[in-house]
Amino acid sequence: MAQELYDICKKYNIVHKLGNLTADNLTTNDKGIRILGQKLAVEDGILDFNHLERRSHCFSHAVHLAEAAFLQALSPKKTVKKNGKSNRMVPIVPAPASSPSGDVDPDEEDTEEEIAGLMVEVAEAVKELPEASEEALLLAELLLKVRGFIAKVRRSPQAKQFFKKCCRAATIEVLELLPYCKTRWGSWFGVLGHLLVLKKAVIAFINQADDSDEVPNVEKNQPKYISYRLSSEEWKFIELIHEVLKEASKVQETFSSESVPTLWLVLPVYEQFIRVWESFTQRSDMKPLVPMLNAGINNLRKYYNLSDRSPAHIVCLYLDPRVKDAYFQSAWTEEGQVEARVIMERIFDEYQAHRQPNASESSNEAPGPSSSGISQGVTGSYGFAFIENATANRRQREKRTIKDLRAELKKYLEEDLVVVPKGQPFDLLSYWKAESLRAPVLGDIARDYLAIQGSSVPCERVFSSAGLTDDKRRGSIIPQNFEAIQTCKARYRAERARRAAAVAAQREAQRKRWEEDAIEQVGS
What InterPro entries does its record include (predicted)? Predict the structure, then answer.
């Protein structure tokens, strides 16, 4: 990986422009960025590439892992031997991306046989649970029960038609049961959400399907539909699990943006997300889920602590004129506030130093009209030599005066926070594009740091789009044509999004005009 990254940087001549690298929270990515730093030092003499500071952990992936920790904790554990020597405890329901081959098709749905095998393992593991509570026993097989029911209905066209009939009879919207996506723990939010919306139809289907002539009889070795009946207690747990996952879903949506900065949000959202899940642990109805919530919270804290290695999160918060240092003063301890201020000042000083002329250059400047800048471009104009001599003393005093190199930063922090009306968008990039003339050092920092995304999701979308283009029917496509197709797709998406935004803005403006006209008519 490090070699591939290095080759790409060399190809596009950007080895001296590398900033932060955002990637999933895998140790292989940590190693790759560390080796990349070593190669930059050895082959290009770049010694200031600190792999710990330049490594940004994908926040969306951290949330995904927290969801995984929460959901896996619902499952009982079984003991397996590793390398024939040591024992370790693993969940009965493995992580979505794990399989014997190491390759999982995201479109591959559950099968009844697969669920039945897992149900048997769960039943055996539950027997070994020491003095497990009734709630723990229900939770142990709840999600497998849901997966099994959905797989059974979706497998049979007749069952799907009968389910639609149950929806109409219950006077609810006719929807299909969503399948569980094996590569995304977050898909459980949609699965359970649909299940709750279709609750009446699900109950009616389970009660009637085995006796209905419209649904084929199940095979002898397969469980009947009635075996998937959910008790009122199980429905309550489904609602609670859905509520927990809803918070994670809102967080994921926040970091799905491709065109606006998101890194500045990472620290506040981490802290808010952890606090919300912690508040769940204090609720009496969530008591059975407390061990699962703590597993997810511990996972979030792990990656939250890793964010301390990179100054980028703090710098990006400072660069938001709606926030600046006010967030740290309100949410962090005094020690944390000092640390954040030191980090921001260090980054500011580094960028300030790059803008300062070298001492040798300033001392070698030739005296005369051109050095002052007053008569530059108008040498020989009548009166300018006199003006230059008249102002010489002041220029000498200004050279001797020791200036506060952080004055720009201090002025920015002392100014009032920018207030944006609720619901109105705020373009952070446009703000700094305009402010960079007044605050050039902060403008340089904004240009570099606001480009860092808090999630690798936008990048992963590009790979997903490439996967849809490079399918089996295009196995012979040449690289040039592949690149052209991808470029056209990206331009088309961007243009369609731009036009949709323009239409929405026009409709909103029209709506406001109608409201104003209506107010005027009432007044008259």
Answer: HATC_C_dom, RNaseH-like_sf, ZnF_BED_domain_contain
Q: What is the pTM of this model?
A: 0.76
Read off the pLDDT of each residue in 401-427 and give the average, rounded to a whole number: 86
Compute CA distances 59 → 29, 136, 285, 334, whole Å: 14, 30, 29, 26
Give the other-Cβ count within 10 Å of 228's Cβ: 19
Q: Quick one: 348 exposed, middle or buried, by C-beta within 10 A (0-12, 13-18, 19+)? A: buried
- Cβ(21)–Cβ(54) below 8 Å: yes
Tokens for 79, please give them.
Answer: 């003991």
DSSP letter (8 states) at residue 44:
H
Question: Which of 262-271, 315-324, 357-366 holds the top average pLDDT?
Answer: 315-324
Rounded to whole angstroms, the Cα distance separating 227 from 194 reads 20
Helices marked H in 27-111 — which ranges? 27-44, 59-72
Q: What is the DSSP string of 432-490?
A: HHHHTTTSHHHHHHHHHHTT--S-SHHHHHHHHHHHHHSSGGGTT--HHHHHHHHHHHH
In terms of pLDDT, which residue wins out, 494 or 314? 314
Work out the average pLDDT over 338-344: 93
* Contact indicator for 455, 255 with CB cutoff of 8 Å: yes
CA angle 127, 129, 133 (to 5 degrees): 105
Residues near 82 by beta carbon (within 8 Å), at least 6 away in sequence: 88
Residues 357, 274: Cα–Cα separation, whole Å: 46
Long-range contacts (CB closer than 8 Å, 24 or more residues apart) made by 269-275:
269/59, 270/59, 270/300, 270/303, 270/304, 270/307, 271/304, 271/331, 273/63, 273/247, 273/248, 273/300, 274/300, 274/301, 274/304
- What confidence tens digit (pLDDT) does each residue in 416-436 have? 999 988 878 888 989 999 999
